[in-house]
Amino acid sequence: MTLELNSTTNTPLMNLHFTSQTKTCCKCVLTFFSWLSLISETENEVISVDSALYGRADRNTCSQGRPFWQLFNTGCSQSGILNFIKERCELKQKCEVRMSDVRNPDPCWGTFKYLQTDFTCLAAGKISSPLSGNWQVISVLSAFYGRRERNVCNDCPLAMSQNVNCENPTDVVAEECNGKKHCNIKAANSMFGDPCKGTRKYLEVTYVCICK
């Protein structure tokens, strides 16, 4: 079975609107293996990255125990960091950024730096006059392969639809479909693995159409 996603479908398209105030995540660069995590508030919301800084913009943030000379430079920011965070987090429900991935090149040697990101949680909502499909592409919010309901794709022996704790979240759909006008994904164990043998599985995808 193949699942088709299409940005020019006649069904109502989805747009994004603001649902909450901007949030700030900040991580002091204490170790090479630390992470910065961005998480939306509910499963119906996704992340929209507003701004990002890797460097130092003031002398108070992440200043505890640091000598003055490590805090003096407040005009230190790594170029391209906003696009870097957007590539990993935009329109996702959660994401993690490894500090080891952003530490080079060093924007200001000798300054104690931090990674700070401002983001807003967005929710999907219908619009009455969608933009022309020629200007829209697919953005996958979430996808899973398995079974979490008995009454979905239940044209099978009863025993094959009873396990509703069979869920394998996957990034495969996003990797294959994001930024495209349409794509086809084969819903099969060969593509996603088998999270629960003997259970009839299905592929469920939540996506929105966004401007290019």
UniProtKB/TrEMBL annotation:
PROSITE patterns, per database record: SUEL_LECTIN
Annotated GO MF terms: carbohydrate binding
Family annotation (InterPro entries): Lectin_gal-bd_dom (IPR000922), Lectin_gal-bd_sf (IPR043159)
Protein's name according to its UniProt entry: SUEL-type lectin domain-containing protein
Sequence ranges assigned to domain SUEL-type lectin in this UniProt record: 39-122, 127-210
Keyword Nucleotide-binding listed: no
PANTHER family per record: PROTEIN EVA-1 (PTHR46780)
CDD domains for the chain: Gal_Rha_Lectin_CSL1-2_RBL_SML_rpt1
Organism from which the protein derives: Oryzias latipes
Transmembrane region(s): none
Superkingdom of origin organism: Eukaryota
Statement: the UniProt record of this protein carries the keyword Flavoprotein: no
Keywords from the named record: Lectin, Repeat
